[in-house]
Description:
By secondary structure, the protein is an all-alpha fold. It is 79% helix and 0% strand. Helix 2 packs across helix 6 (112-129), helix 3 crosses helix 4 and helix 3 (51-74) crosses helix 5.
Amino acid sequence: MALEHQRLDRLRVRMAGVAAPEMRLADTLVAWIVMAGGVMIGNLLSFKVPLLDSLVGMLAVIAVVAVVGLVKRLLPKMPMVLVLSLVATVAGIPGLLPFSDALIAVTAKLNFLAFTTPVLALAGFSVAKDLPMFRLLGWRIVVVSLTATAGTFLGATLIAEFFH
């Protein structure tokens, strides 16, 4: 038990003060292009949406994300998820802004499931780079992860069953 606490203390010391580096604009643009390409291919293959329709929808999504990035730079203490939620919600209210109806129309052609494959692939890459850190945490983290995942799945299933 003491050995495990020592390992976790070493891990905390190593992780203290480690912040994610700021992405350069070129890296951000590449990430947006890769994501848009993955969504467009998924939309074409799975839902038979023409590439041009998907491209217009993805350009609209990228425009919203660019606005969120700008707001985040102006208000760095605001959580990114909060900024994204606010901007996307305000932009997506029909009739509120002059472009809201057009934005809703072009993004309606993008199927939500087309986003999941590229997002999960990038999440997998993100986790894979931190594998040495996870090894230091030991086998108990696997049990905790599986329990949390199972609980989330079961909770979502119950909600879906009762409110469908």
